[in-house]
Design goal:
115 residues; alpha/beta; Macrophage Migration Inhibitory Factor; 33% helix; phenylpyruvate tautomerase activity
Length: 115
């Protein structure tokens, strides 16, 4: 159930979106040690966004998981995702925030129930 929600002010075409989704899915699964078959990624491009008073390329993300997150993992994940955003969308790592949520099983629903 690892989930990554990304928003950016950079317009994202379908080809770039597909590449980013695949890269982020693979990266999230690998770094937090969960099967990719459980990973969900959402990407919203062209979102009105300012960072430090500027509308230059920027991004915000939220990573949610039942376990697998923690200080050392979060740092690795932040770095890897920032690299993807830099490579694919020219978002500098200094213009990317990510928030991590390690949630309890009962706070995440799936298939009409909770985990």
């Amino acid at each position: 159930m690892p989930t990554l929600n990304l928003s950016t002010n950079v317009p994202v075409d379908a080809v770039a979106a597909s590449d980013i989704l695949k890269d982020c899915s693979r990266t999230l699964a690998k770094i937090i040690g969960k099967p990719e078959s459980y990973v969900m990624i959402s990407l919203n491009g062209g979102v009105p966004m300012a960072f430090a008073g500027s509308e230059e390329p920027a991004a915000y993300g939220e990573a949610i998981s039942i376990g697998g997150l923690g200080p050392s993992v979060n740092g690795k994940l932040s770095s890897a995702l920032a690299e993807i955003l830099q490579t694919k969308l020219s978002v500098d790592s200094s213009r990317f925030y990510i928030k991590f949520y390690d949630v309890q099983r009962s706070y995440f629903g799936f298939n009409g129930s909770t985990f």
